[in-house]
Design a protein that fits this description.
By secondary structure, the protein is of the alpha+beta class. The chain is built from 8 helices and 6 strands. The strands form 3 sheets. The protein has a two-stranded antiparallel ribbon. Strands 3-4 form a two-stranded antiparallel sheet.
Length: about 190
């Protein structure tokens, strides 16, 4: 009895079970590992699907994603792979550089969220990603500058017990908790 080339279920058509055939035929989202199926039935590999949705920026070398974009603040490219929405830069990393480690982020060396060039991508932790964002000045939610943070910490040490946190916070036009977290080092840890 013939079986599916993917899952060993009963053969339906073109070397696949009914489920895999439908995915290939209707959605073109089958993650093909068998090159013979690709040639025989015209299904595109993940690499081909990624490459056809990019425009190369000659100045930066970025492969800028032209397909669907995730809505909201973070505009990363997305694509459907095996009926699941996936981040295009993560798929590109996985396709060209190998498997992702658990809990790791895919970070950009180019600061271009649309870029899926594997040479511009690396694996990092949440801390690496945040540190990179801060170093490159992409942290738009920061209320205080580096100089203000250093000054707050000096004033806090100098006037601790003499002035209230509320009085000190008012000088910087920030809230009491923002001032306190900054002064004791709970926030702005990257500033020494």
């Amino acid at each position: 009895m013939r079986t599916c080339e993917y899952c060993e279920k009963k053969h339906y058509a073109k070397g696949m079970c009914h489920m895999h055939y439908q995915r290939m035929h209707l959605r073109n989202t089958l993650d093909i590992k068998n090159p013979n199926l690709v040639r025989r039935y015209g299904v595109k590999t993940l690499k081909e699907r990624l490459k056809e949705k990019v425009e190369v920026n000659k100045e930066t070398g970025c492969w800028e994603w032209q397909g669907a974009m995730k809505s909201g603040k973070k505009c990363y490219g997305t694509m459907i792979v095996n009926n699941e929405q996936k981040a295009a830069h993560r798929m590109a990393y996985q396709e060209w550089k190998g498997e992702l480690e658990d809990g790791k982020f895919i970070c950009h060396t180019c600061d271009n969220q649309r870029c899926i060039n594997p040479e511009h991508l690396y694996q990092g932790t949440a801390l690496d990603n945040t540190g990179d964002m801060i170093r490159r000045g992409r942290c738009t939610s920061a209320k205080l500058t580096r100089e203000q943070v250093k000054l707050i910490r000096r004033l806090y040490k100098k006037y601790k017990g003499k002035l209230t946190i509320k009085e000190l916070a008012e000088e910087f036009d920030i809230g009491i908790s923002t001032f306190h977290h900054c002064a004791v080092g709970h926030s702005y840890r990257h500033i020494r």
